[in-house]
Design a protein that fits this description.
Layout (H helix, E strand, L loop, with lengths): L20 E4 L4 E9 L2 E6 L6 E3 L4 E3 L2 H20 L1
Antiparallel strand pairs: 1-2, 1-5, 2-3, 3-4
Length: 84
């Protein structure tokens, strides 16, 4: 005997909230959700810059550790550019 509702088809994951840090798995880039525009999520690099459109099905929320790692990678990249 079973109780409870039967599982239905998998629902698409909810769209990330504006301000959330995500990884665009299609482009391999990390950004902040700036807006939802039609079928796309608009992302901006962590330290600012030009926005790009991403497929909401191809973005993943970053964990706090992943966000820290991404921010550190950007700081290190900026530091390397200054040394040249």
């Amino acid at each position: 005997m079973t109780t409870g509702a039967q599982p239905g088809p998998l629902a698409p994951p909810p769209e990330p909230a504006v301000g959330a840090a995500v990884r665009d798995t299609r482009q391999g880039r990390v950004g902040i959700v700036m807006a939802h525009d039609g079928p796309y999520v608009q992302l901006r690099p962590l330290n600012g810059g030009r926005e790009w459109d991403a497929d909401p099905g191809r973005v993943q929320l970053l964990s706090p550790a992943e966000l820290l790692s991404a921010r550190l990678a950007e700081v290190n990249e900026r530091s390397r550019r200054r040394e040249r």
